[in-house]
Amino acid sequence: MKSRLIILLTIIIAFFSLTGINQAQVLSLKFTGGYSTKSIGDYNTFGEGVEKYINDLEERFGGRTSGEFKKINLGFEYGGEIVLKIYRGFDIGVGVDYIQIRSNKSEFTLDTDYMEHLSYTIEPYFKVIPIKLSVYYSIPIIPPLKLFLNAGIGYYLGKITNTTKIETLDFWSETNFEVKDRAFGFHGGMGLEVKLVPWVALFLEGKTRYCKLKSWEGEETYQDSDGFSDLRRRTLFFYEKVDPDTGNSYPAISMDIVTIGIYPRYFEVDLSGLLLRAGIIIRF
Q1: For 200, which of 15, 27, 174, 181 is 20 to 30 Å away at the CA?
Q2: What is the pLDDT of residues 57-90, one digit of tens each?
Q3: 3-state secondary structure 217-237
Q4: 240: closest CA among 55, 48, 57, 60?
Q5: Which parts of the chain register pLDDT below 50?
Q6: SS (H, E, C) the chain
Q7: What is the pLDDT of residue 24?
Q8: First vs last Cα of the chain: how many Å apart?
Q9: What is the pLDDT of residue 131?
Q10: What is the C-alpha to C-alpha distance for residues 216 and 178, in angstroms, rounded to an integer?
């Protein structure tokens, strides 16, 4: 992974070195903010599986349930970028974004005569920082409006923390993990820019992004009311586990290789989706 980051930085430095010979270059600063959609993938599948498990217990033993899984699919993101004009409508930019994916706590409860009470809580937190290299091409429409196209690559640094807690009347267990991953991604899109004064403009853009992070590593801690605790440091897995009470299998995520069930593979987060952003450009 370090070698990939070195390659990306080398490309960025090379582009800026080449643009340095152009005396007519124009330097710009871009500041953006907006929302994006993401499929997320395995974590949403896991959360939906927890909801199905609670409903299956209700169907099997009767009782009353409450709560639902709060699917993660939107995220607020903002960032900054340095842009250099290089040749007749072509610009090149290097920037850093901060992606805060909406992470809500999901709580489920089940009360039955058989199990008396069950509470199941999951609370995730997602953070991603992309370092991006983009190429822009501008097409004048009518002053002061112009259309621009863009495409580029990014190096995405991701972090996830998650807490899962299960409680009954006489027992509780809590699992926490913190994992990180990094990978390359690609983006492209188009937008409109309107000049307010010679050195300030506003813009609105839409983008698509493709990026998958699928090698999450870190540590996981487990503790319960019986006094047992465990610490694991390895790769996070996604798998299916058969529950003895319902007889059905449900998606699960864990680093505990001993208890991992069927069809194990590395846990994956899919950041691919659509972005809608607006911002300001300051030119020098």
Answers
A1: 15
A2: 999 988 999 999 999 888 889 999 999 999 889 9
A3: EEEEEEEECCCCEEEEEEECE
A4: 48
A5: 15-16, 18-25
A6: CHHHHHHHHHHHHHHHHHHCCCCCCCEEEEEEEEEEECCEEHHHHHHHHHHHHHHHHHHHHCCEEECCCCCCCEEEEEEEEEEEEEECCEEEEEEEEEEEECCCCEEEEEECCCCCCEEEEEEEEEEEEEEEEEEEEEEEEECCEEEEEEEEEEEEEEEEEEEEEEECCCCEEEEEEEEEEEEEEEEEEEEEEEEEECCEEEEEEEEEEECEECCCEEEEEEEECCCCEEEEEEECEEEEEECCCCCCEEEEEECCCCCCCEEEEECCEECCEEEEEEEEEEEC
A7: 43
A8: 36
A9: 98
A10: 9
Q: How far apart are CA 171 and CA 98, in angstroms?
A: 39
Neighbours of 20 (CB within 10 A): 10
What global pTM score does this model have? 0.87
| Assigned token pair, 237 | 């897995």
Provide the token pair at 17: 């070195």
Q: Residue 88: is it exposed, middle or buried by C-beta count within 10 angstroms (0-12/13-18/19+)? A: exposed
Site of tokens 């706590």: 105
Of the candidates 92, 91, 189, 192, the one whose C-alpha atom is nearest the C-alpha of residue 140 is: 192
Q: Do residues 148 and 139 touch, judged by C-beta distance below 8 A?
A: yes
